Amino acid sequence: MVTRTGAAEPLVGLTVGVTAARRRDELVALLERRGAKVVGTPTMSIVPLREDQALRRATERCLVEPLDYVVATTGLGWRGWMNAAEGWGRADAVGQACAAATVISRGPKATGAVRASGLREMYSPGSEANDELLHWLLARDLRGRRIAIQEHGAPLEGFASALRERGAEVIELPVYRWGPPEDPAAVRRLVEQVIRGDLHALTFTSAPAIGAFLETAGELGRREEVLAALRSDVLPVCIGSICAKPLLDEGVPAVWPERGRLGSLVRTVTETLPPRVRRELDTGTERLIIQGNAVLVRGGVISLSPVPAAVLRALAEKPGWVLSRAELLRRVWRGAGADEHAVEAAVARLRTALGPHKGLIKTVTKRGYRLSVAG
Q1: How far is residue 118 from each of residues 67, 145, 147, 272, measured CA to CA in Å?
Q2: Are the C-beta atoms of 288 and 295 separated by less than 8 Å?
Q3: In terms of Cα–Cα distance, which of 118, 96, 102, 121 is closest to 110?
Q4: H or E element that contains 238
Q5: Phi and psi for 354 in degrees, rounded to 5?
Q6: Quick check: 186 and 254 in contact, CB under 8 A?
Q7: Domains and CATH numbers, the chain
Q8: pLDDT tens for residues 135-185?
Q9: Contact 275, 292 (CB under 8 A)
Q10: Is 219 helix (H, G, I), strand (E, B) or coil?
């Protein structure tokens, strides 16, 4: 069946994985608006510590004596600290303590949160890297200085210890922690989907999310298979270079936008993914475009289920060449226990879905199948 679509749906036929826990719904909506099918599977959870006594004790330490520097590392964490202080009736005191100090922030999100609380940052690195914040601080005389650090997800142990070695008193503010995923089984399924090539792209908005995903793959004994898939069939798209570092360390060529925004992330997916997977076919009477699990025909879309779509993509890698049933089994089912009858059934479903274009799939007696394309 042919459905109509337009230029506003550049990701039609493509399946994109979303691993974000925070702002997941927003990211899913942005991708779906562009035609993508989205698999939303957070690989970890965010555990707010608003009522945590450690955060309250650290906050009270900030108020005992004047602060010299305050480090904002994330927008979420900064807002969480301000909200917690308000809940304790200490918002004014915390605001005054920060206003009297030098505030530095890690990137635009943290900077935006600082400004929204009525403060101004003295410094914010363009790279959004903690290392640059640390370098900026270490360039100053820190003996006897009091520095408050809003942590994000996990303790910044190396950061804090370097400051203490220079003689600073460091107060760490644990606003939230990364926790295990709410649905571990879904993360395990995501691992399998990546290995099978069911996804065309996988998005990450934090380095810990990548670490959690690879950890799950390792627990299943499939880490190397996941890394191989991310180096080939599945495009990893990260929110920024810092986020991408765990993948780069594994030799996985991830991509990311210049600005660490969800909109920029989606734009990177939209600009990078379709050219990577799109195949154009000339049937002699018209041109067809295979894009993921869809065939674009004269402004319309033929949607395919995953297995017939995978068969069509395999045939489209070398249009006009004959692929045997055994070769299709290897490429599409990847040793999943299927037999040649599964190939025949998938080809039949593919022809049915293609409707008036079913003649595109030719049977070559005793040899296999090929795509009928113009010379």
Answers
A1: 17, 24, 20, 39
A2: yes
A3: 121
A4: strand 235-238
A5: -70, -20
A6: no
A7: 2-44+181-277 (3.40.50.10090), 47-178 (3.40.50.10090), 279-371 (1.10.10.10)
A8: 999 999 999 999 999 987 666 778 999 999 999 999 999 887 778 899 999
A9: no
A10: helix
